[in-house]
Give the backbone structure.
Amino acid sequence: MSKILTWLRIIRPPIVFISCLGGLVGALNSASHLQLSPSLSQIIMVILGAAFLSAGLMIHNDVTDLKSDKINRPHKPLPKNLIKTKTARLTGIALMLISIIIALLVNIRENELVNWNCGMLTFLIVVVGLYYNHYGKYQGILGHIAVSFGVGAIPYWGAIAVFPTELLIMFPLALAIFTQEIGREIMVNAGDFTGDLKAGFKTLPIQIGRKKSMYIALIFYLLFIPLYPLPAFDWLGLGVPKIFGSLYLIGGGVFALSLLLTWILTYMVVIKNDEKKTWAAFELYERTGTRVMVILFQVFLLFEIFY
């Protein structure tokens, strides 16, 4: 039992849950817009594909984060040697490969066709994820962009998993999520500053300093505000499909305000120059708080299906 709990910890259940829920949001909202109904088999495949993909990337990330985690999070399974590093690495890669297979076969029962579009996207997410895990932590903002690509792609992945020819239907939402996630990743790494510095990582906070990087993160948080309404209200006149309505706008507005609030609360602690309190603030507001708000935002998106 303890071994099972250890593996559950390393796959980071909150992130797996967010990935599965995000994939469902993309698939179900696309189906609602197209006035089509995905089969139970497709829904199950979307959940499994998202779960294996996120779990594999998270396990592999813990392997490459080991030097930093020994300082920042020594309680995690790998720093405590509860799971062998080699075992974790192989398991992570295996789960990612399974996710690619699932993406290719997600519609095989319905139309007997291989979903090459979703398979290629999944492969790309894996490649970008591996790039980040091995090299992105040493390449400043490029690393943060790499992580954000995978996060932004979640609803887009869910959409083309079930509707492989609808390549633009979830793109505006994916772009908005991608933009704010760059800011969030910078903030998370600003919290990990001490351990990342000792591990030799070159994240943006390490390169330009914690406070300056927080200002850059704020820019991306602010950019999310004009972008998120596009799938409900095409104020730019680009011909963006109206996928969502008022519930989405409310949820997105609450999410945008929460990003700004967590930034302010964290910054107020940072300027006091108390490293212990700063670490706690980043963990509470930027890591845990924003994850909770992401889930709430996704719930608003699910309610849109029935509204």
